[in-house]
Design brief:
Homodimer. By secondary structure, the chain is of the alpha/beta class. It contains eleven helices and 13 strands. The radius of gyration is 19 Å and the shape is globular. The chain binds nicotinamide-adenine-dinucleotide and uridine-5'-diphosphate-4-deoxy-4-fluoro-alpha-D-galactose (UFG). Nicotinamide-adenine-dinucleotide (NAD) binds next to helix 1, helix 5, strand 5 and strand 7.
Length: about 350
């Protein structure tokens, strides 16, 4: 059985669908700090399965011990983390405790039960400001511009040191670029609590009338249209990358790194304009000052994951933006509108 820690969240729930599609038996572990157990009703509609889950925190060693003693766990896909950049700058200790100490506790219990396969949700933020795009896995990591990103770098280094020190670990560090979109069914998607930090949820909330207009952070970057460029990928393609990484890790030992991005860069204005065109609606906007810590442009070199894991992108930007809107318009209040 595969333990999906943080499996009730945005990327985790999409990964549950792909794992089931590929025949894996799964157990979700989540403390629901940024998700709702209502997601399981939606997952049942998509997969026709009742996915078992436990309400446990990765910082709770006794809780984890009970899970690993009760279930026959073979590998862990580890999504359980806090991810709000602004909050991480205000409350670093909360991020150290949840993301770093929580992962350490999870690893300790895994080791006790001889479970040594882990797929970890890292981020392109670990490349820092020093590296030019396209980012390649062989580059030296830099210093992330925020505390959230710093926790990702620390956990990557913890996992690398663990692998160097002890035999038998099998770890994948997946460095995500910018996941957007939702399941094509419109049944699961992203619904951030409060004001969205990320671009796509903000765009869809403006389009649905929850917010007045989009603020575009910076129009004077050294890019084609002056707005910042990112590598957006469909969350279902990202979910499939986890299945491929898991298959690979179940047959290998060691710690390996894969970028998960398409290699294409789109600007904020590209996203807004394409969203309007694909969905036939208007998104009022204004260009405001740059957001502190933002980089002008970054995107992936995705050749390693393509060559080594056979990952292929199934969805293009139009699909990502159509699926984001399909989810938002059918679920203006996320799972609460069910
Ligand atoms: P999410 O918040 O939707 O999902 C994370 C899940 O983990 C939530 O269900 C939350 O309740 C749970 N969780 C958090 N702390 C926990 C704890 N201590 N114990 C148990 N469960 C806990 O976020 P997401 O977008 O699905 O991201 C998943 C992972 O991918 C996170 O680690 C995130 O940092 C990482 N990541 C996300 C992005 C992105 O753009 N979404 C980019 C790079 C990396
Ligand atoms: N943006 C806006 N207006 C908004 C929101 C975002 O213009 O309301 C812009 C940002 O300035 C950026 C782009 O849209 O240029 C994408 O922003 P996101 O916040 O969606 O994504 P980021 O690339 O900034 O953030 C990602 C991950 C974080 C990670 C960070 C580190 O989502 O988890 O990279 O670089 F920490």
């Amino acid at each position: 059985m595969i333990l999906v820690a943080g499996g009730a969240g945005y990327i985790g729930s999409h990964t549950c669908v792909e794992l089931i599609k590929h025949g894996y038996e799964i157990l979700v572990l989540d403390n629901f700090s940024n998700s709702s157990a209502k997601v399981f009703d939606r997952l049942k509609k998509i997969t026709d399965q009742d996915i078992p889950y436990v309400d446990v925190d990765i910082c709770d060693e006794a809780g984890l011990e009970s899970v690993f003693s009760t279930y026959d766990i073979q590998a862990v896909i580890h999504f359980a983390g806090l991810k709000a950049v602004g909050e991480s700058m205000l409350n670093p200790l909360v991020y150290f405790e949840n993301n770093i100490a929580g992962t350490s506790t999870l690893l300790k219990v895994m080791k006790r039960h001889t479970v040594k396969h882990m797929i970890f949700s890292s981020s392109a933020t670990v490349y820092g400001e020093i590296n030019p795009s396209p980012y390649q896995e062989s580059m030296q990591t830099g210093m992330p511009t925020n505390t959230y990103g710093y926790t990702k770098l620390v956990v990557e280094q913890m996992l690398q040191k663990l692998d160097q020190a002890e035999e038998g670990w099998s770890i994948a560090l997946l460095r995500y670029f910018n996941p957007i979109g939702a399941h094509p069914s419109g049944l699961i998607g992203e619904h951030p609590k409060g004001i969205p930090n990320n671009l796509l949820p903000y765009v869809t909330q403006v389009a649905v009338g929850l917010r007045e207009k989009l603020s575009i952070f910076g129009g004077d970057y050294d890019t084609a249209d002056g707005t910042a460029v990112r590598d957006y990928l469909h969350v279902v393609d990202l979910a499939v990358a986890h299945v491929l990484a898991l298959k690979n890790r179940l047959d290998h030992t060691g710690c390996d790194i894969w970028n998960v991005g398409t290699g294409n860069g789109y600007s904020v204005l590209d996203i807004k304009n394409t969203f309007e065109q694909v969905n036939q609606l208007q998104v009022p906007f204004e260009i405001v000052a740059r957001r502190e810590g933002d980089l002008a442009s970054f995107y992936a070199d995705s050749s390693k994951i393509q060559n080594e894991l056979g990952w292929e992108v199934q969805y293009q930007l139009d699909d990502m933006l159509a699926h984001s809107w399909n989810w938002q318009k059918n679920n203006p209040n996320g799972y609460e509108s069910a």
